[in-house]
Amino acid sequence: MATSTPDAFFSNVDNNTGQHKKALEGARKLQQIYPDLEQAIWGEARSLFWLGRVEEAISVVEKRLPRAEDKFERVVLRHHLTQFEAAAGDTVRAREHLEALQKIPLSPDVRSRGAFPFASAHAAFGDVDAMIEEYQKQSDWWAIPTTALRTAPERLPALREDPRYSALLRKVHHSWGLRPDGSLPEQTLAPEPSR
């Protein structure tokens, strides 16, 4: 079974650009077609969370966790539960989920390309140092979740002044072919062909 579709990709982009209602609608429509599509389930949970419907988000993830078929999905679900439970004020449960997340065995290659769930889980507790440390392990900055790194200061204002955060952003921008400040590079247009 596929874990993603182009529609799931766009739902994720909608969430990362603050269009949470649109992302929620998209994720739920996808689940009507693909009831077990992981990306759609995760998208629904993230959308609910960002819309302030934290208990509903927790419920969506808790229903999916027993059916999680692979390690990566368990990582994503535990990361979401850590973040959601911390936001709901249940730090005991959030720490339990963080501990379970850290115990999931992953190969070094997968771990170096998947820092986001671990960094985000630490961010849920406001632990900037642990979050930065996790992101510094990241080797592949093309992954879509790294777009959330650009909006992280909204959740952790202390990052705005942290030089380590600025250095990470420059890495992301370089990987994407952007200027160090994240803006698009100037493009020179090719001369029009003569007729």
Describe the structure.
With 195 residues, the chain is mainly alpha-helical. The protein contains eleven helices and no strands. The chain has helices spanning 6-16, 20-33, 38-50, 54-64, 71-87, 91-103, 108-113, 115-123, 128-136, 147-155, 163-175. Helix 5 (71-87) runs antiparallel to helix 6 (91-103). The longest helix has 17 residues, at 71-87. It is globular and about 65 Å long. The mean pLDDT is 81.
Global shape: globular
The assigned structural class equals mainly alpha
Q: Work out the oligomeric state of the chains in this entry.
A: single chain
> How big is the Rg?
18 Å
How many beta-strand elements? 0
Count of alpha/pi helices: 11
Q: Please bin the fraction of helical residues.
A: 55-70%
Instruction: Tell me the major beta sheet.
Output: none
List SSEs in N-to-C order.
Answer: HHHHHHHHHHH
Instruction: Look at the structure and give the mean pLDDT.
Output: 81
Q: How far is the N terminus from the C terminus?
A: 51 Å
Residue windows where pLDDT falls under 50 for at least 5 positions: none
Strand content: under 5%
Question: What is this structure, in a nutshell?
Answer:
The chain has helices spanning 6-16, 20-33, 38-50, 54-64, 71-87, 91-103, 108-113, 115-123, 128-136, 147-155, 163-175. The protein is mainly α and 195 residues long. The N and C termini lie far apart (51 Å).
